[in-house]
Amino acid sequence: MVLKKYNINPDLALERQKCTFDIEEIINIFDGGKEKTSQRRKIEDVVLKSGLCHDDVPEECMSLKERYENAVRKSCFFSKLMKTELQEITGIEDFETPAIRRIADALFKDISPFLLHLGMFVPTIIGQCTSEQLMIWLPKALDLQIIGGYAQTELGHGTFIRGLETTATYDADTEEFVLHTPTLTAHKWWAGGLGKTINHCIVVAQLYTKGVCYGTHLFMVQIRDLDTHMPLPGIKVGEIGPRMGFSSADNGFLGFNNFRIPRNNMLMKHAQVQKDGTYVKPARHGKLTYQTMVFVRVTLVNEAAFNLSKAVTIAVRYSAVRRQSEMRPNEPEPQILDYPTQQHKLFIGIATAHAFQLTANWLWNTFKSVLSDMKKGDVGTLPELHALSSCLKAVCTSDAALLIEQCRYACGGHGYMLSSNLPYIYSFVAATRTYEGDYTILLLQTARFLVKAWEQAEAGKTVTPTVSYISRSLKGEKNSWRSTDEGIIKSFQAVAAGKIALCVKSIRDRMKSGLDYEDAWLLTTVQLVDAAEAHCRSVILETYCNEVRRLTKSSSDNVKIVMHQLVTLYLSYWTLQRTGDLLRYSSISEKDIDFMQRQYEELLQHIRPNAVALVDAFDLRDEILHSSLGAYDGRVYERLMEQAENNPMNAEPVNQSFHKYIKPLLQGKL
Ligand SMILES: CCCCC/C=C\C/C=C\C/C=C\C/C=C\C/C=C\CCC(=O)SCCNC(=O)CCNC(=O)[C@H](O)C(C)(C)COP(=O)(O)OP(=O)(O)OC[C@H]1O[C@@H](n2cnc3c(N)ncnc32)[C@H](O)[C@@H]1OP(=O)(O)O
Ligand SMILES: Cc1cc2nc3c(=O)[nH]c(=O)nc-3n(C[C@H](O)[C@H](O)[C@H](O)COP(=O)(O)OP(=O)(O)OC[C@H]3O[C@@H](n4cnc5c(N)ncnc54)[C@H](O)[C@@H]3O)c2cc1C
Question: What is the pTM of this model?
Answer without folding.
Answer: 0.97
